[in-house]
Amino acid sequence: MSRRCELTGKAVMVGHNVSHANNKTKRVFRPNLQPVSLASDALGQSVRLRISMNALRTVDRIGGLDAFLLKAKDDTLSVKALRLKRQIAKKMAKAA
């Protein structure tokens, strides 16, 4: 299981610890990933995704999983999230 957010694509970054004497040692910045169940209004079910807490705040701000996925670019989404996006778009088109 990779350390990558399924919605935003946020992943591990590499940088340096810098001491007072300006010595640099490698370090890793990991995203705060948590398994979360999000409810899809269009599909009428909850979906379990491994997302960053920053992405969770964004989903809440935008107005739910369906709205977030429909706005999101395909290249940032995981395979599972892309599948969800297509299902939601199909349901929305059928309802309209």
Keyphrases for this structure?
96 residues; alpha+beta; Ribosomal Protein L24e, Chain: T; two-stranded antiparallel sheet; 4 strands
Please tell me about this protein's structure.
With 96 residues, the protein is α+β, with helices and mostly antiparallel strands. The protein has a single domain (13-95), classed as Ribosomal Protein L24e, Chain: T (Roll). Helix content is 35%, strand content 29%. The chain has helices at 53-62, 65-71, 79-95; strands at 13-18, 24-29, 33-40, 45-52. The strands form 2 sheets. It has a two-stranded antiparallel sheet. β1 and β2 form a beta hairpin. The model has no long low-confidence stretch (mean pLDDT 96).
Instruction: Write down how many β-strands occur, each being a DSSP E stretch of 2 or more residues.
Output: 4
First CA to last CA: what distance?
A: 37 Å
Relevant CATH superfamily: Ribosomal protein L28/L24
SS element count, helices:
3
Number of domains: 1
CATH architecture: Roll
Strand proportion, as a percent range, falls in 25-35%
Main pleated sheet: 2 strands, antiparallel
Order of strands, widest sheet: 1-2
The average pLDDT value, as a whole number, equals 96
| CATH third-level topology | Ribosomal Protein L24e, Chain: T
- Please tell me what the overall shape is: elongated
Low-confidence stretches: none
Please write the string of helix (H) and strand (E) elements: EEEEHHH
